[in-house]
């Protein structure tokens, strides 16, 4: 089994786009799109194994070598800062990591004058680094659910969150104030696997580069 390549992939839209992308380089993993509750799928002919995991767990499985490769959003990589090789931007799953605040606050707010603020976010590491680099003291409240709720109930003045179309912000009376980063989906590789399975992994990376 050591000659298998194991890939950790999260469920949802990333899974669908990943299956399509791998199909374009001749790696057939359409079985992953079925309604099975299996978490590990194997293709003995192609010597490929796939693990279905939570997006936030993908870097951990790859860093510790349980998976050779992983597919995950750049936001997760920025937040976790794992020791991984990140060779490829897969160019899908685009969104922006933004600072947002209530529209009525934004009408008279000046971000350049911020000195001490309170932020609610799923990304405390990214938010803390961002504001520290700007010399702004920040109190960070970590949430796991709907971040947009925090300013509406007075938990925080502002939020740091991912924004795609911006519709959820608008419906909750929030506006974008600053862009922290543009986010896309990335291919990540375990550093030891890149040495021990160099030929196969390099081939996958080259083939993906050609179709992206």
From TrEMBL:
Residues 54-209 form the ATP phosphoribosyltransferase catalytic domain. Its EC number is 2.4.2.17. It is found in: Cytoplasm. Pathway: Amino-acid biosynthesis; L-histidine biosynthesis; L-histidine from 5-phospho-alpha-D-ribose 1-diphosphate: step 1/9. InterPro entries: ATP_PRibTrfase_cat, ATP_PRibTrfase_CS, ATP_PRibTrfase_HisG, ATP_PRibTrfase_HisG_short. CDD domains: PBP2_HisGs. One of its GO terms (cellular component) is cytoplasm. It catalyses: 1-(5-phospho-beta-D-ribosyl)-ATP + diphosphate = 5-phospho-alpha-D-ribose 1-diphosphate + ATP. Its main location: cytoplasm. GO terms for molecular function: ATP binding; ATP phosphoribosyltransferase activity. Keywords: Amino-acid biosynthesis, ATP-binding, Cytoplasm, Glycosyltransferase, Histidine biosynthesis, Nucleotide-binding, Transferase. It comes from the Bacteria. GO terms for biological process: L-histidine biosynthetic process. HAMAP family: HisG_Short. Belongs to the ATP phosphoribosyltransferase family. Short subfamily. Lacks the C-terminal regulatory region which is replaced by HisZ. NCBIfam families: hisG (TIGR00070). Catalyzes the condensation of ATP and 5-phosphoribose 1-diphosphate to form N'-(5'-phosphoribosyl)-ATP (PR-ATP). Has a crucial role in the pathway because the rate of histidine biosynthesis seems to be controlled primarily by regulation of HisG enzymatic activity. Heteromultimer composed of HisG and HisZ subunits. This is ATP phosphoribosyltransferase. It comes from Pelobacter propionicus (strain DSM 2379 / NBRC 103807 / OttBd1).
